[in-house]
Write a structure and sequence with these properties.
With 429 residues, the protein is mostly helical. The chain contains 24 helices and no strands. The longest helix is centred in the middle third of the chain and has 14 residues.
Length: 429
């Protein structure tokens, strides 16, 4: 139908029954036509076709449509037609509040529910409040509601724990999430996919990657398949922490289930990073070749990881070869890549190449940072290139690359723990 009036005419002709109302509302909402959704709902309400569950459903639809004031007024409309709001109505109102991002209003609704003797609090309304508190980053409030429901003699179910673990995860309290996870097992509450997902996220936020990997393995042992998002998140965490064996195992599992998981660029980059950080450079190179063979474009950051790995291994020739390959591929370079190349040149005493790279990065529009200046100054100092070193030092001062450097004698800090050590040496020299 092209207009709301036309919709009303159709409704008059078809005379839908009560069972037809919810499918009709869902269809109109899915089409993004909330105006007609409201017309259909009010038409049915005026004819007495609706029950409390219909109103509850509509309240949540109003929340998704960001019409919170109208949602909060719905209980009064219900009473006007002789329907009393139930606990489920208050639960729907809390969900509508959170769909609009207002925890304060959700708390007020919950307080109203507490005061309504005709609507005794139940597990679903507490679950909604625990979820609301967690979504708003108030994990302490979520724990408080969890304790309150138990004080009222209500037994937490899987949804309660899922919401509570997620709340603790969002609040960076992975140890509390782990405690609730174990409590679920002790109480015999069924662990669902949502439970495991929340626990993995909690471990990830707490940088507990080995524990996260163990949780995922427990999922597999129970016949549950981790989600693609979960696998990728864990891959990234293992990569940042150099846990290459775990990263490789997760990656291989994803490949083995190619019909379920999409092994994308992020997955390849993560496992390459894990191998590079774990000093498995040649394995990382093999993974790079596999990535190309899969038709996935290699970006500049992937090349940077490999160049850095070669630099740490003291192989400046392979670092430069990788840089050349990156340039030929058309990938963009970056400051970190040049810094790794400068360090590689410094370690083998190749100050001339270091100078060329230092000039090239500026020609390409990259602004040298403290590491860039410090590395090239170290190379020049080592080669006794005093005049050129002074030129670079003056440029660094002009660029304010060295801040709070105290002139002192002593060895150069070649590992960059103290910015400007070479610059100070030039001055003392």
């Amino acid at each position: 139908t092209k207009s709301r009036d036309a919709l009303e005419n159709v409704l008059r002709c078809l005379k839908p029954a009560a069972d037809d109302v919810l499918p009709l509302l869902n269809m109109l909402e899915n089409r993004g036509d909330f105006g007609k959704c409201r017309v259909a709902f009010r038409w049915a309400a005026d004819r007495g076709l609706l029950s409390v569950p219909h109103h509850n459903h509509f309240i949540e639809m109003l929340g998704r449509a960001k019409r919170l004031e109208e949602a909060l007024f719905e209980p009064q409309r219900m009473r006007a037609v002789g329907l009393s709001p139930t606990t489920a109505t208050y639960t729907s109102l809390i969900r509508a509040c959170m769909a609009c991002g207002t925890l304060e209003q959700a708390v007020r609704v919950f307080d109203d529910a507490r005061a309504d003797a005709e609507a005794p609090l139940d597990v679903p309304i507490f679950n909604a409040m625990v979820r609301a508190c967690g979504d708003a980053g108030r994990w302490q409030w979520a724990v408080a509601r969890y304790k309150e429901m138990q004080e009222r003699g209500l037994r937490p179910d899987a949804a309660t724990y899922d919401a509570l673990i997620d709340a603790c995860a969002r609040g960076g309290r992975w140890h509390k999430a782990a405690a609730k996870f174990e409590e679920m097992k002790q109480r015999g509450v069924e662990l669902t996919l949502a439970t495991y997902t929340a626990m993995v996220n909690a471990c990830a936020r707490g940088n507990q990657w080995e524990r996260a990997a163990a949780v995922m393995q427990e999922m597999r042992d129970k016949g549950m398949l981790p989600t693609e998002e979960m696998c990728t998140s864990l891959l990234q965490g293992c990569a940042r922490n150099g846990l290459w064996e775990k990263a490789l195992r997760i990656f291989q599992d994803m490949k083995a289930a190619a019909g379920i998981y999409k092994v994308n660029a992020l997955a390849y980059i993560s496992v390459i990073e894990a191998l590079a950080r774990g000093d498995r450079v040649e394995d990382a190179i093999e993974m790079l070749a596999e990535m190309k063979q899969a038709g996935i474009r290699v970006d500049g950051m992937t090349y940077t990881l490999l160049i850095e790995a070669y630099q740490k291994a003291g192989d400046s020739d392979k670092a430069m070869a990788m840089f050349q390959e990156m340039q030929e591929s058309g990938s963009r370079s970056n400051v970190w890549m040049y810094n790794s190349l400068l360090l590689a040149c410094h370690h083998v005493g190749d100050y001339k190449t270091a100078e060329l790279l230092f000039d090239e990065m500026q020609v390409k529009g990259f602004v040298p940072d403290t590491t860039s200046y410090n590395t090239v100054l170290n190379s020049l100092w080592k080669a006794k290139q005093v005049d050129r070193a002074r030129q670079v030092y003056n440029a660094a001062v002009k660029a304010k690359a060295f801040q709070h450097v105290e002139p002192r004698q002593g060895h150069l800090d070649l590992h960059m723990h103290s910015a400007g050590a070479a610059a100070v040496a030039i001055l003392v020299w």
